[in-house]
Design goal:
Layout (H helix, E strand, L loop, with lengths): L2 H4 L9 H18 L15 H9 L18 H13 L5 H17 L2 H12 L5 E4 L15 E5 L2 E8 L10 E7 L11 E7 L5 E6 L8 E12 L3 E2 L5 H13 L9 H10 L5 H29 L5 H26 L9 H12 L10 H11 L4
Parallel strand pairs: 1-4
Antiparallel strand pairs: 2-3, 3-7, 4-5, 5-8, 6-7
Helix pairs in contact: 2-4, 5-6, 5-7, 7-10, 8-10, 8-11, 9-10, 10-11, 10-12
């Protein structure tokens, strides 16, 4: 494919069917969230298994998946509508988020049939949750340098090593882990494989990591002779790098990459002075950025729906989305200069939380440097 063609993100047309999905789902969401505590900030790390099960029972998870795996075989842009509404409402989605976003699609594409039937329908029901084992201590953002190893034994593999910054590892039922199965190969991208690891397996230790906002969503996961059966190998041995780059496409392409700061954006608009030209200019620019990011993200959903390869486009949009999200707390300080503290009014609390939390936006899902390296390589610049 021509390089220029590979990064063209064509607009996705909104249809009456999509708007009907939005109307129906918004009504469902209003009722489902009514009994839950108020969300202090719109960020998708809120964890509530009961809410995830409600979504699954109502058929709102895995809606693009085949019906035999619990899906509804709906277009990607209808799923996009569901994601937008969840994020706009600040719904507590993190229990099912990773499993539904990338692990289900990964298993349906590469997993054996027994593994698909065992796991994927339960993800669609909102009752089974995943974490992703990628980053490792001392490896930084260089995923190809991972050292966690799996050695072949009768009927399975034994894994030793460690993963770090693993979201929801202390709460997940399974991990999708990328490990090295063939050491000493010439290419660092070769000899890697993916496994589904039961988080209750003997020898697996999860150590929560407390972040700047006082939460322990991240964890270090240590593998000490952890046995994984042959049936839990995802795809073929040695195909891990190709598989994980496909998986990261699902992780980087959605509206969660530019809507984490949307509640603070709403607060800024509420507090803006209509007669202050500086407010109009700065907030107008931010709203325009948000609109463009939405158009690009919807375009990528359409690419996935049409079977096109969106990997280069997702790197560009994810990087642009992180820049936008990190700029919103800075914009709040520029326009209003409020003191950061957790006990202020809703605007102050939201601004304080997002100022502390936004640092991770350029790290999660691939660091800014890695994404720009992928973009440069895709454009033939390196």
């Amino acid at each position: 494919m021509d390089i220029a063609q590979s990064i063209i993100i064509r607009p996705a047309t909104s249809t009456p069917e999509q708007e009907e999905v939005r109307r129906v789902f918004r009504s469902f969401l209003q009722e489902a969230l009514a009994s839950l505590p108020p969300r202090k900030v719109n960020c998708w790390n809120g964890y509530n298994p009961e809410f995830s099960r409600k979504l699954g029972e109502a058929g709102w998870l895995g809606i693009t998946w085949p019906k035999e795996y619990g899906g509804r075989e709906r277009p990607q842009l209808e799923r996009f509508v569901v994601l937008e509404e969840l994020l706009a409402a600040g719904a507590p989605v993190s229990a099912h988020w990773i499993a539904e976003r990338q692990c289900g699609p990964l298993l349906m594409r590469y997993g054996n049939e027994a593994l698909r039937k065992q796991i994927v329908p339960r993800i669609a029901k909102g009752e089974l949750y995943f974490c992703i084992g990628l980053s490792e201590p001392d490896c930084g953002s260089d995923l190809a340098s991972i050292r966690t190893r799996a050695e072949k034994v009768p009927d399975g593999w034994v894994i030793n090593g460690a993963k770090v910054w693993t979201s929801n590892a202390a709460r997940a039922h399974f991990m999708s882990a990328l490990v090295r199965t063939t050491p000493g190969v010439e290419s660092r991208h070769a000899g890697l494989s993916q496994f589904v690891v039961d988080m209750k397996t003997e020898g697996l230790t999860v150590r929560p990591i407390r972040n700047m906002v006082g939460q322990s969503d991240f964890a270090e996961v240590v593998f000490d002779n952890v046995f994984v059966p042959d049936s839990h190998l995802i795809g073929n041995e040695g195909d891990g790098w190709r598989q994980v780059t496909t998986e990261l496409t699902f992780e980087r392409s959605g509206p969660d990459r530019y809507l984490s700061s949307t509640q603070l954006m709403a607060e800024l608009l509420d507090h803006a002075d209509a007669g202050e030209k500086h407010h109009a200019i700065e907030l107008g620019r931010a709203v325009a950025e948000l609109s463009n990011l939405r158009a690009m993200s919807r375009g990528i959903a359409n690419m996935i729906n049409n079977g096109d390869d969106p990997r280069l486009a997702t790197s560009i949009v994810k990087d642009a989305g992180a820049l936008h999200e990190q700029r919103i707390p800075e914009l709040a300080h520029l326009l209003f200069g409020a003191e950061l503290r957790p006990d202020g009014d809703r605007f102050i609390r939201t601004q304080s939380f997002m100022t502390q939390h936004a640092i991770c936006f350029s790290i999660r899902g691939g660091t800014r440097e890695i994404l720009r390296g992928i973009t440069a390589k895709g454009l033939g610049l390196r």
